[in-house]
Design a protein that fits this description.
The protein is of the alpha/beta class and about 800 residues long. About 30% of the residues lie in helices and about 20% in strands. Helix 3 packs parallel to helix 5 and helix 12 crosses helix 17.
Amino acid sequence: MRFSVCFWGGAYNPIIPVMKSLPSAWRNHHGLKANTRDITRGYIRYFEPDAYVEAEEGLLEAAGLEGFRRKHVIGTRVLPLSGLMAKQHNRDWAEPSFGLTIFDAMRDIYTKELQFETKQPRPASLVKPDSKSLVTEAVFGCYPGDKLLEYFQANYQTIFKPKEIPASPDAWRSAFRMGHLTPLRFTRYKIEAEAEWNDVLTLFVFDPASTLDCIDIWNVRSEQRSVLPVPVDWWADLLPDIRALLKLEHRPIKGNLHGLMHDSIIEFARSISEDRANELTKEIVGDLPKEAAIFKLWRTPVWRAPTKQQHSRDEVPLALKSAEKYITLSVDEMSRAATFETLAPEFAYKCGFGKLRWINTVQPSHFHGDHLGTTLPFNTFDPYSTMIQGFGESVLIGREGWSIGLQYKDINARLTIPSPESAVISALKRFGIEARLSEPGHIAKQILGHIDGLRGMRLLADARTLETLNTMAGGIRRKGVGDDETEELFDRRSKPVREWHALVERRKQQDLGVLSLNDFTSRNIIRLGLQSRCPNCANLNWHTLTAVDYDVTCERCQRSYPFPQSSLQKNNGNWSFRVVGPFAVPDYARGSYGALLALRAISNLNVGHSPMVYSTALSLSFDGVEAEADFVALRSPESHGLQSDPELIICEAKSFGAGPLITQKDIAKLRTIARKIEGSTIVISVLRNHFVDAELKLIEPFVRWCRRPTANGQMHNPVILLTGHEAFCRINIDHTWKELGGKHAKFAAFEHRDSLMAFAEATQSIHLGLKSYHAELREKREAKRAAQPNIVGE
């Protein structure tokens, strides 16, 4: 705590508790059901520290942060406590090895505001440390007593001329009623703390003799509210001040027409018993308005991982910034590298001894095109397992974006952003899965290259268009089963120009995303040519425009014959189209159309609010298993402007067919993948408008197995069921479901597609008749209680 007042922003340095066993004062409190390691990791996920100072050796590993202890790297984000303040060369003082020294802020305010001013500086206090508790350190701030660091306090005294006072209720009034500057408050110099929600005044009543309470009050400052620390020993003396503050806060909410008032929270630390808290509460009620204060007897469990469906203001700490700017990041398409000017605190000295003096956070907003992988898994526990390559420093990926540590002002930073495919493959590797693009994956990738990415799938989002393309691509006849299966290929076929004009006209009238025949020809989906029949073998040949000559060659007999100039068909009947490139691959482009349309449906669930990167079909290898996924995606649902750790989506997609398309083998493969990747979302898709009964008999047991709860009570693997209705939807899925009516229309509201979990529940109800996951859990709990009548319900 004392070291923290030597740093700019030090008041917001979180303290991460690492415990072998849970302290008794923290047991049986709201949300504390996890083991100690899970709680520690929960604190880390909540605060997402930029760097770590290890109080004693081994704590890094105990917290699950062993990935930070990486040797032979240019930059590091961890130091032992003994190395935090370092003396260099022949100096008689020490400087921070991490972070920006508060001395830069002191020098700035002195030279700009106080050096030539005759007026007195802002009133300031310097509260003496208390030998029996941490009240001064936790409430006001206290400088270290080390001789190498005494210049911090000396400069504070020289610049602000503070009044030296003992730790007492009067010191509290000076700081929080009269607004006197304190060492702890000054660490917030020119820092803007943004709350995602309206601030609510919180009085945090704690015991400064309790180390655990001091950890809580220190950390609670970074939560989404204004906090006033109230030492419990000073409660009686501060009652008049507390009542005055509560009355001042209890005012009408601006703009509210229903008479609602602001209220405050009085939270009691965990060392204070419920009986003691109730006694203190009775003392303060007095003449306070009834709803002026809410009394809170528990600690908000910020260490508990939030669900992907529930969002509250307690999920994220304050967002801290000193400067920001919006830029258009120019990214080289070949190297995917981008260079930009960094930001720095305007008062910071140009260079300094400490590494990682401040952080720049890049928040990617909209990258047009499908060539950049900007939705990436968080690397909170291992900064070196990043997919973003910085220049000499590791890049942390978290809620706020991509964090880069900086030491110098006025420099450029360079980032190399991965491709979507490599981002997905790297994400799978974290689960112990090796992945590579499969043959269908290459085909699907080529298709996207022709149609300008996933947005271009509107051209193929029509069943009759796909049937036409598949017919033109020739066909496959399969015989046998398993290893004895053989394939017989049929040649490509051409379609007269008039048929394609009719197809385009139909789609224009139905508003199915096509404007002209040029949409297909300009993207090299189809190519124009001329037909002629060979007089030698009667084979009907198709010639490209570059191959047409007065003499042409037969594709079958390879003999030359004169082009039939005098016997052309009426109405340009010799002109026809053929599919080219990946569109000439039979069997619906080896299933690529179905996979890409399923991917399109997922990407359109919440347009503009859930960034997503993906890879086309991948061959997966893990634990001696070989499997294939028709696409794998990373989707990051936004939560109040912040990114969430991306959800992994794995798809099994089928095309058309009268009989069962989903087989037992497919389900067994998906079960293996789901077991390997807890929390991943599984997509099962067919292009016809329904699942047949034989498929549903296989799918339902798998879905129920995936609905089993995890340790934190969430669905193990949400399963989304898609059909042609969703794959070919014209506007969006809710519009399609409204038009379908019946059971589909019941789930047309937005809340049924604002998350993968909600969408999975909706599709499971439509196709399998299952109840919502949480409703099913409640029924099971109630049934269990009914079967055991001696158990008292909650």
